[in-house]
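Researcher: We're reviewing a set of sequences before deciding which ones to prioritize for further study. For each one, I'd like a predicted 3D structure that I can look through quickly. This is Heme-binding protein 1. If possible, include the structure in token form so it fits the rest of the review sheet.
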Amino acid sequence: RIYLSGLVGFLLVLTAEARVGNSSQLQFCTETEQCLLFDRICETDKYEVRHYDSVKWVSTDETSLFMEIAAMRAFKRLFNYIAGANENGKKIKMTAPVLVKISEDKSFWQMGTYTLSFLLPSEDQTNPPKPNDNKVYIHRMADMKVYVQTYGGWMTSMSDKNKASSLSSALDLVGAEYNKGFHYAVGYNSPMTMFNRHNEVWFVVGDDPVCPSSEELES
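Model: Here's the predicted structure for Heme-binding protein 1, in token form for your review sheet.
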């Protein structure tokens, strides 16, 4: 019985760590060794629904008119942290994706606060080193389900706004419940990558996810 409970505990640890895992498990995560893994719940021709386990991120907030400017400043801050600007002077591996949390009540020509987050690799999930910069912080994101729409090219304020609008329209059409207060702009590529870029927009599922089939939509 002790052996069995130990084995179950070991498997639970393995499972928990595996949610930040080998990027070879995702065909669009090609530039980092580790990536945020997920379970696909369902999909339609407009979006998919994924489940993500609770994991830790290193984040920073930046206020600007445009996501691009905020992301540039915030990225530098977070990059310094993983390059060794932390209490242990430890270099931390880059992972994917990078998240930008964007408020939905911001109009295009209005200052907004953007939260940029790097996923911590599996070896730093349990006890990540404390950032030296007081604008950088570690936080645990709750276990969540998200509605996802993917797109290529460059992730800009305009492309993100268009895709977020496209996804919310598709969700409204089927009466899906989701958090309308914010969405995530999600990037998987280095700024140096010119082709085959993979971006996503996420809305957090509010209730039971809705995934009607094409037959249901037609009826």
